[in-house]
Design goal:
about 150 residues, alpha+beta, 3 helices, 9 strands
């Protein structure tokens, strides 16, 4: 219920989800071959860099799939915390963040986004994921309708 209003991307952007995330190659629609895709992430910088806070009702990023008409459909939420912020808030060596009974995944500094090491958890609450509610990749999500313009960082 806390994210239902974000089906409208304009509402999400007004609420602070205004960073259209791109990887180091400039791609915004994140895909992984046969495993499927995530889609386009819109991040809220004030939540992403909030000293390690995790709130189930306030995800750091919203994940959208591009429809065949070029509009965005909300498909998932992503919770993200840098390892540095997490350890600052919880102590060095603290267990990984956990939400909904799920441990967050770890991404090292060699990640495709050029970010410092971070923890993340996807929640596919707006589109069924046969790989699981908390899997990174959804084989039912595609980047085929993403234009070359929307693939570039904004």
């Amino acid at each position: 219920a806390a994210t239902a209003r974000f089906h409208d991307l304009g509402v999400a952007q007004q609420a602070g989800y205004s960073v259209h995330v791109a990887d180091k190659a400039g791609l915004t629609c994140i895909a992984n071959g046969a495993d499927g895709a995530m889609g386009d992430h819109f991040a809220n910088g004030s939540l992403l860099f909030d000293h390690g806070a995790i709130d189930a009702t306030r995800p750091e990023a919203l994940v959208y799939e591009t429809r065949n008409n070029g509009t965005f459909k909300l498909v998932a939420l992503e919770y993200i915390v840098t390892v540095g912020d997490w350890e600052e808030a919880n102590g060095v060596g603290a267990p990984r963040p956990n939400l909904f009974g799920q441990d967050f995944d770890f991404s090292d500094a060699t990640n495709r986004f050029g970010l410092p090491p971070f923890y993340s958890l996807h929640a596919w609450i707006w589109k069924d994921n046969p790989s699981g509610m908390f899997a990174d990749w959804n084989p039912r999500v595609t980047c085929e309708h993403t234009s070359s313009v929307s693939r570039m960082a904004h």
